[in-house]
Design brief:
single chain; 122 residues; mainly beta
Length: 122
């Protein structure tokens, strides 16, 4: 069993930055692909970014150039650095872990965190 706990959300003005963290339990963290997703009110959950065990990463078009996913295997933590935030980035952000994940999809993710709220004011 793997537990994921997100932190770092909050309220920020448009153009600001936040860094989300996702701390995981378990000793096989480095073997998982780690993804970030988000869900805005009244919308479906959407893919944000993924970082695979081999370092390969993918981003949603809407966040390319603004968000950066990274991981620290020694700390069993994955991060999402979010810059140039816009009101449309407002959502609950979730991290997830899995194997054989697909780009731009929730396929393959086994474990999910509870989410952290990000609110961007205009």
């Amino acid at each position: 069993q793997v537990q994921l706990v997100e932190s770092g959300g909050g309220l920020v003005q448009a153009g600001g930055s936040l860094r989300l963290s996702c701390a995981t339990s378990g000793r096989t963290f480095s073997n998982y692909a780690m993804g970030w997703f988000r869900q805005a009110p009244g919308k479906e959950r959407e893919f944000v970014a993924v970082l695979r065990w081999n370092g390969y990463n993918t981003y949603a078009d809407s966040v390319k150039g603004r968000f950066t996913i990274s991981r620290d295997n020694a700390k069993n933590t994955v991060y999402l650095q979010m810059n140039s935030l816009q009101p449309e980035d407002t959502a609950v952000y979730y991290c997830a872990a899995g194997y054989g994940v697909r780009d731009n999809s929730a396929t393959g993710y086994i474990y999910w965190g509870q989410g952290t709220q990000v609110t961007v004011s205009s």
